[in-house]
Amino acid sequence: MQTRRKFLKHSIAVPALGIAGLNPFRSTSLSQTQKTPYDYILVEGHRDIYEFNDRFGAGESSPLAESMLPRYMEGGLDVIIMPVGGTHPALRGGNHKMLEGTLQTLDMIIREIEKTGGRAGIIRNKEDIPTLPNRNKVWFFLDMEGAEPIQINPESGFVPDRRLALLRSFYRMGVRGIQLTHNERNYLADGIAMEGRGASGLTPFGIEVVEEMNRLGMMVGVSHMAEAGILQVAELSNSPIVSTHTNIRPFVDTPRQHTDTAVKAIASTGGVVGIRYINAGGVHTPYELLVDEIDHISDLVGVQHTGVGWYGHDIGDPRGGAQSANATETELQTMYEQRDSFIQLLSKRRYSDEHIGMILGGNFIRIWNEILK
Ligand SMILES: [Zn+2]
User: Fold this and answer.
1) 28 domain residue, yes or no
2) Region 304-319: what's the mean pLDDT?
3) Residue 153 pLDDT more than 80?
4) Cα of 172 to ligand 1 centre, how many Å?
């Protein structure tokens, strides 16, 4: 197998790589797939707004249309699940006010999409869900990372039904997913920071939110939740739940990552676990660990419950390389190369083209067809 360094060295000498969809290093063996990233609907389970923050900070006025969309299209990306606000200030463009910062971020994304002249859109309903790969359109599925912005502190005499007013308002503005917690405890449930400190499941408000999200047609997310809450949400939800961006134990052995028990609970709802690329420590090529984890989930609960949470930083992303804890300069590829590397590794492990399509995005597409109105 090519080492990463070698691959990059050669790829620089072949400028057509990616654009023509031809990979000179691809095995010619008949069993290896001939498919490219452009043959699949690619869904990225989690992409933070940080690149927007960086580019606005550097003085760009329309970063999506001018800098980001061309890269996404070259990479064959079809749908990005993007949190537009949530628990941490960086998710709100630095604004420390939960609700105000989240509203500003939501407006920023909608404005940026409006400036693309129809080349980007927001998935709101079933009819927006892509049915074929399309290199001329990138869809956003708007998520929220941590439900603090929809919390209402009930005062005495408060009409109970109004507790869900902010949830419904965000739905009307286009938000279709909410990760119930980030790492911390909130009014809904405990995040993984409470693991080992008496982490508990859903509060009465958390239960109301899940039920209302089910009714509205929203995707319930549990990536950063403590396991007690994940198990309870899986019991309660009457539509598939997701972990958009998490690794699994023992491959990455920290409380942030899911145990087999949590994976099984998510799968029991018909849901998806999106595995995120992380630096494999130089022993593997960048995507081998990701494929190892996909293998594990496939063996445990089936390939229909796998997805990709994040592919890592790419060439062109200002947060790539030294700025990121998750990538080194030598690991950076174009988006096309990242997806192509991943597809080839999956194929080497003998996933069929159909299964690769499910892993790359088909599974998210399937559950959106169940969840959305
Ligand atoms: Zn996260």
Assistant:
1) no
2) 92
3) no
4) 24
CA distance 318 to 52: 10
Cα–Cα dist 282/271, whole Å: 32
Q: What's the half-sphere exposure (Cβ side, CA atoms, 13 Å) at 83?
A: 33
Confidence tier at 78 by pLDDT (50, 70, 90) = very high
d(CA 223, CA 245): 6
Distance (angstroms) between ligand 1 centre and the Cα of 116 equals 27
- Rounded to an integer, what is the distance from CA 106 to the centroid of its chain? 17
Residues 143 and 84 sit within 8 Å (Cβ to Cβ): yes
**Rounded CA separation 152/303 (Å):** 39
> Distance, CA 229 to ligand 1 centroid (Å)?
16
- Residue 46, domain member (yes or no): yes
In a domain, 233, yes or no: yes
- How many angstroms does the Cα of residue 182 sit away from the middle of ligand 1? 7
Instruction: Kindly report, residue by residue over 218-271, the tens digit of the pLDDT.
Output: 999 999 999 999 999 999 999 999 999 999 998 888 889 999 999 999 999 999
Question: 3-class SS at 22?
Answer: coil
Closest Cα to residue 341, out of 367, 328, 355, 360? 360
What are the distances in angstroms from CA 35 to CA 180, 292, 342?
37, 21, 12
User: What is the count of structural domains for the chain?
Assistant: 1
Measure 223 CA to ligand 1 centroid, in angstroms: 7
Residue ranges making up the domain that contains 339: 4-16+33-371
Domain with residue 48: its CATH number is 3.20.20.140
Locate tokens 């299209």: which residue?
73
Whether residue 85 has pLDDT greater than 50: yes
Structural domain includes residue 190: yes
The CA-CA-CA angle for residues 268, 270, 272, to 5°, reads 105
Is residue 136 within 8 A of residue 73, CB to CB? The reply is yes
Of the pLDDT bands very low, low, confident and very high (cuts 50, 70, 90), residue 160 is confident
pLDDT class for 97, splitting at 50, 70, 90?
very high
Distance between Cα 27 and ligand 1 center (Å): 35
Q: Hey, what are 207's tokens?
A: 């239960």
